[in-house]
Amino acid sequence: MCLPAREARVIIGGMESTNRAAGLLARAADGDVAAFGEFYDLCAPAVYGLCLDVVGDASVAQGVVQEVFVELWERCGETVASGRPPLTAATEIARTRAVSQLVPADAAMAPEQAYRHGRTYREIAGLLGVAPESVPAMLEHALSHVAGESGPAHDGRSATMSGSPLG
């Protein structure tokens, strides 16, 4: 579930909290570590909630939240200069990073769906929530990773789509 920025602002207390977050991040951009700590305390619950909704695992969500706030610390000057509300920036980064946590798991699932279950690209795309044209690349990536771990295929061919029942 993606948490729109306007809903995220409501979670942390409306316009007053949005203005407070902006002021804290501006102070952090000037090197005020304590202000960034307050910014974290104010915004982290909404960011964590978004991450948990996306990844469905508390420990993974906590890791994503840490990455989000490290990035915000490193780029707080750019975020302030952009004029975007800081929580909007935080939730956009969080959503992107949380979704990226799901992609490797989905990519790893693609070969099993193709080869073990005989699913088509379109069926795999539907299961994974991706565009059908992205499935061949997911399969190729997963198979090249397996080939790299186990060495070349027994018949001398590389692990590519040439032997695919879907290709």
TrEMBL record:
GO terms assigned for molecular function: sigma factor activity
Keyword Transcription: yes
Keyword list, A-Z: DNA-directed RNA polymerase, Sigma factor, Transcription, Transcription regulation
Taxonomic source organism: Jiangella alkaliphila
Highest classification ranks of the organism: Bacteria, Bacillati, Actinomycetota, Actinomycetes, Jiangellales
GO biological process per UniProt: DNA-templated transcription initiation
Domain of life assignment: Bacteria
InterPro entries cross-referenced by the UniProt entry: RNA_pol_sigma-70-like, RNA_pol_sigma_r2
Region (Disordered): 147-167
Designated name of the protein: DNA-directed RNA polymerase specialized sigma subunit, sigma24 family
Single GO cellular component term: DNA-directed RNA polymerase complex
